[in-house]
Amino acid sequence: MSIGSGQTPEISSDVLLVPRDAAPEEATRVPRRPRPRRSRHRPAWEEPPSRVGALVKALVLTGVVLAVVLPLWTVVLTSLSTQAETIRVGGLVLVPRELTLNAYRQILSGGIVTRAVLVSVGITAVGTVLSTVVSVLAAYGLSRPSSLWHRPLLFVFLVTMFFGAGLIPTYLLVSGLGLIDSYWALILPGAVSAFNVLILRNFFMGLEPAILDAARIDGAGDWRILGGVVLPMSRAVVAVVALFYGVGYWNAFFNAILYINDNAKWPLQLVLRSYVLQGVTLPGSGVGQVDVATGAVTGLPVKMAVMVLAIVPILVVYPFVQRHFTKGVIFGAIKG
Fold first, then answer.
1. Radius of gyration of the chain, Cα coordinates, nearest whole angstrom
2. Sign of the torsion formed by the C-alpha atoms of 57, 62, 65 and 68
3. CA dist., res. 72 & res. 69, Å (int)
4. Tens digits of per-residue pLDDT, 271-312?
5. Is 11 exposed, middle or buried (0-12, 13-18, 19+ CB in 10 A)?
6. DSSP annotation of 260
7. Spatial CB neighbours of 318, under 8 Å, sequence gap ≥ 6
8. pTM across the whole model
């Protein structure tokens, strides 16, 4: 390659060194140094794992996985088995000979189990939305230092975390409001959790004040700031709080024991407790009972099917919220 006047030399992969007073042919090429390879060795402070340590870790992780998966596997397979199969093996089924959906057809063909599923879905949906909205509004108001009665209301929320009114005063309050045998008795008594409100409040206080001030300068009010600025930045923590409320409403059964006398209004968890744990034959459920002659539980597939129906909705919803779970809880706990 020659260098002429008024021409720009081409840059190659090598470095071209040309002295000012040297001829073009005296140019020397210096090869570029190769990039250093990453060392495959561990850092000096990190000890290599021993074979025994790696084996112990593998055994512990395998045991944990089996402890979680094996009960679920057994419950699902038993629910898909026949009554004759459960009688043959004497209880839960690990390796079924044939699979059938008769248990699910039986409990979903009508009766109290089907109504209980609909009741639980409705209570969970309405309760989760109501609790999340109220908690977000309360947390945003408590996170603004200039809000009305900021400190007294915060003190009241903190007190409710450590002191409760008790079972009898709560029952008298629900009864005085006329909520006995009402679905609202399953929602309103636990509609707001002080713990969730504090998580949201700490997250809101950790938001950049300059962003909120800029929105206020542009003429946005509190409602516009909350809906257009704060909530889009708080999706993780709001999703986690909604998950907390949803799981709580779905798994709740004690309020139904206290306030619901009509079994047609029972949620699924109360049906599960009454039938699976206590062995009570529910009116309209179409399920069996314990066979006194043989001692075998003839309705075991149906019981396991009810348990699967109680577990599956949470397992379906959780993966969509799991990526926000750790981030939302940690941010809400340390910010502010």
1. 32
2. negative
3. 5
4. 887 776 655 555 444 444 444 333 334 478 888 888 888 888
5. exposed
6. -
7. 243
8. 0.70
